[in-house]
Amino acid sequence: MRTALFPEATDLERGAVRLNGCPVVSTIVAGVCSAYLAACTGQIGGLGGSLGTGAAPGWTSGTGAGGQGTSDPGRVTLHRLNRVEYNNTVRDLLGTSLTPANEFPVDDRGRGFDNMADVLSLSPLQLNMYRSAAIALVDETMTNAALRARLVACDLVSEGETCARAVLARFVPRAWRRPVTDAELAHLMKLIGTARTYGDSYEQGLKLALEAVLVSPHFLFRVELDPTPTSTAPHPLDPYELASRLSYFLWSTMPDDELFAQAKSGALHDPATLSAQAQRMLKSPKAQALVDNFAGQWLYIRMMDEVAPDPEAFPKFDAGLRAAMKSEAERLFQDVVAGAISADQLLTANFTYVNDRLAAHYGLPSPGSSNMVRVNLPAGAQRGGFLSQGSFLTVTSHTTRTSPVVRGKWVLGQLLCTDVPPPPPDVDVTSIDQMTGGTLRQRLEAHRANPKCAACHGLMDPIGFGLENYDAVGAYRTADGQAPIDASGTLPSGQAFTGALQLERLIANDSNYAACLVDNLYAYALGREPDTTTPGHLDRSIIEALADRLRQSGYDFRDLAARIVTSATFTSRRGEAGSP
Amino acid sequence: MKATRRTFLGGSAVAVGLPFLESLLPRQARAQAGAGLPRRLIFYWVPNGIYMQKFRPTTTGANYQTPPLLSPLEAFRADLSVVTGLENAPAKPDGVGDHAAGTAAFITCAHANKSQTDIRLGISADQLAVNQIGKLTRLPSLQLGIAGGSTAGDCDSGYGCAYARNISWTGPSTPLPKLTDARTVFNQIFQGFDPISSEAEIAKRQAYSKSVLDSVTEDANGLLLKLGRSDSLKVQEYLTGIRELERQIADTSLRACSPGVEPAANPDYPTKVQIMSDLMVLAFQCDVTRVITFMLGNAVSNQTYPFLTSNGAPISRGHHDISHHGGIQSNLDMLFEIGTWEMKQLAYLLGKMKNVSEGPDGTNLLYHSTVFLSSDVSDGNRHNHDDLPVIVAGHGGGTLSPGRHIAYPAANHERISNLLLTVVGTVGATGSLGDSTGPLSGI
Q: Distance between CA atoms of B17 and B9, rounded to whole angstroms?
């Protein structure tokens, strides 16, 4: 659950006055500004208490868990495979090394992630590209001997229709991630007849059928059916649907043979089985998907590919350094996924991963390798934990300088799920660059003399100030220009700290950190926005219970993942009132 | 088919070479359009507003004095009108988020539902036009851009990224995402181009494609029977796409238009903008589509302009950062340079269009087109959605009277949606758009 520091406009006032900004309309009186300021400071005291330890529902399968009348597991809208999911799925389905989705339009992101089913719309252009991809994939599969052998285990020339049917009978259930009916197979076999009508081979017919399989909505969408689509009564997912939820959450791809087998046996809904499957999957190399797609978006690691530090200001920042920083962050989160470290050690680890290039940038001893090597960090290294890593420090900076504001806002928003509103319009957000003398901190502090800015900046900036020992590409420094850096900072709770490492310890111990990790992973797992406000909805109580459990477990990420997949909202769904 | 075309092209290419295509223009499609030459539309979005003090002419009418920002367009003075004083009231966000809400409302003039995942907006002007003329070309419309958008983070203050990255919408919840890779655009434009295969081969291929699409249509129809409301909407989107594909596959008009050479891979930013302009003109020349939207970035674009200088220094700060200029002259100077560069890009596009002569009467592509340019806000510092910067270029096939500065008094709160109705009216489209009340006359 996210805490808004700034109430929605409607709380403030309706109608004539702009909601966000004090200064936009000249007629706005000072009193409105005060309300805004109070809003930004007023709720801070309530932080911490906002995610209390409510009654914890079970996270077992079933539909009745939770408090009285709390039984709504929600529903996930028909989920189109996003670009990553498409590439991974065709890799596992066909063995191809093609990545056709790289050409597809970028998927829109909602709530921080690009796997939110509601915003994965499908335009005619996208469908056109899915079709082109299907044609290219089938061509490759049928002409590449190794790939073809995986798919076609009989002789299409001598066995003709029998062989084609056998190929489809084995392939289609994997492609559609569920058993197929005889009628569905017969339907696809008609395409083989079409090719024969034109005097073409079974080979050509099979290609048409395979193309149809890969363009079918059963492939492009993750289909979950309700026994009665208009009934809001909860029901358990079909085991194959559950297998897909598991595999797309943990692997961003289709289920493997083991998951299909568990679905077929009917055992998958058993919480112990489900939990064991999650543990197995987290140990697989495919769990790298959680690093790339969950952490890549939650922690902005993906943005390392797009940041553009000013080459004149930072001539040493090059492709090698960029790649090493990204890899450092990914390797640390890999350790979290693998269970090698706990989720709070993401912030407090006393080791990191560097190669010679990154070690030199950090002022650490060279590990003697161009590959990333795990190194223990000596006391005084000024490194350790995600907030002291080049990736975070660079993506939260401007092109020519650091931004304590952006860094502070990021820490509040991404690690504590506390949103700070952006500045109202008509305030000068660049003037500090025009100011001269002193440190950036001193200029920002002077800037905050403006009461329009002070309320929210008073929350963000003091966090970022504590990180000022790291420049806009994450190099350690003790002076900003000529002036020495003061790296003392304060959290909105009032806790004081100096430097990144102390800040990291405070956040790791903040109960909101656990709640925020849960909140993000839960939304990502389900591919929908958690509903924490609708009465009767299970999301809120489950999220709160998961956060409690995460803290009790010593921040065991794998335990959290397993508990998410065994929660009622993950294993069941409901229909939707209203006619289609 | 792709391989066939590459074979035909005979090797890799370095840049888009625009072939002279006049004699190759498909006549069949034109004939279907009814009387006259086909009319085209471009909706051109630029981010972060415009430096209005340098954009707004101080006088109105035909003899307006060229303001500094419009000097790159001087050669097209007779081909465009500057329109000021228009307002896009639905673009005002709930709370903060002017860039996303303003981009969403750019040509929908609809108020975006503030949500990360509950996306609700409205049909956009280009799609109103598509409803009228989309079926006359292989692609009903084409959505182009420069950048897909950031790979992580909030797009703008609680608005889902769909609002910040798309200006073309077929309906409230269905954005049409843009293509931002020049080679992909090129391949889309010339998909199906095949000068080698025989008629019989092409007929067979079409029959095969149709069979496959029939098969998946049955899948989708079967699925529809089992789904609830929200899920059905997704399958309806799918079926719309399938019907569109069927139509495209049956369209062989492109056989008569030579594609020229594939664009270079990974061009730098300014080169890419020019290549995209080349491709827009190419798509029109080959009559592959008649309706194009173009986004020069995404909402809150923080594009840097190190290839431009201001006060002797390269512009290394991001556009959005600079657009919060605070009235500081050095910031405004940078905005002037960026704005001038943007106007040069428009001039490049208009020049390309004007160089394509059409028909026996000596007219050109620009004469038969209408290019609408504006931004998500007016002043990047104030985020205001009135006093919008607007250029309407082209003659709309003779339906427009360009060459003037048309200024609406601020007190009238004249709606930009009404101007957009006039723009789509040049291709014969009618209807309503967001808060529109009726097309503006005298444009």
A: 12
